């Protein structure tokens, strides 16, 4: 089977959304955790230079562990509402307890009455609407924080979702929006996004409207299966997709299967990265592997040499 490999020529854009983006945006994702996605992103950030970083893996952000950002701005993230009982106005009629479908209203004995479990509360507002004493407030729900930081590779927008908090997709969208503003105001030529693994809402929020997606996978059965799901997702949104196989030399036959499957889905092969203990050493030292050198660093440099013309060509064609 013929497999399209990404070379130093320009990569064609797909979809009208990319044509209208202010700054080209590469989102690096994976079908599963543990493929080495963040390590690749950190190295690409070192090599890219004139770019803005965005860590959109808000449920388990870890890019900051390698790039050691210095926080410049810190903002709260508010999404949805939560009910709170004003105990001084509550007459303990129990209507809120009866109508709550999520068992968020709990009975307390001392003093007798009710209280809201903030983790169980879904913010539907039924209890607020039906309370005859109007003893409930419907406050904005704090769900986490987002940050604008400086790193040795350039500005970085990242976030932290609160414990048991929801709406990670909305927080991802906020991070991307802020990264675009920083890129435009600072005259940066590229946005590099560390996306979350999987195919859920945070991933969809990370890739929608992006210029392109790089999938980092590994030559295992689960790597093959999960990459196939991600390829279906990027096909659905008509986003140009490239694939990189990490630790390919541990299972060359599996690597061939992955590259053939990528070709069947219209993705291009951006490169292969060899297994290298320097990657673990770099993580321990809080550095990107390209800052240490070695076989994996050489492969990532070749990967970037193939990817970079995409954005150079896109920048010239931009309206």
Structure description:
It contains 11 helices and 11 strands. It starts with 15 loop residues before the first helix and ends with a helix. Helix 8 packs parallel to helix 9. It folds into 2 domains: 16-51 and 189-317, 3-Layer(aba) Sandwich (Rossmann fold), CATH 3.40.50; 80-142, 2-Layer Sandwich (Alpha-Beta Plaits). The protein is elongated, with a radius of gyration of 23 Å. The protein has 319 residues and is of the alpha/beta class.
Short description:
This protein is about 35% helix and about 25% strand.
What layout of secondary structure does this protein have?
Elements: H1 16-19, E1 25-30, H2 37-48, E2 52-55, H3 63-67, E3 70-85, H4 95-99, E4 105-109, E5 112-116, H5 126-130, E6 136-151, E7 154-161, H6 168-186, E8 191-197, H7 201-207, E9 212-217, H8 221-236, E10 241-246, H9 252-264, E11 268-273, H10 277-285, H11 295-317
Parallel strand pairs: 1-8, 1-9, 2-7, 2-8, 9-10, 10-11
Antiparallel strand pairs: 3-6, 4-5, 6-7
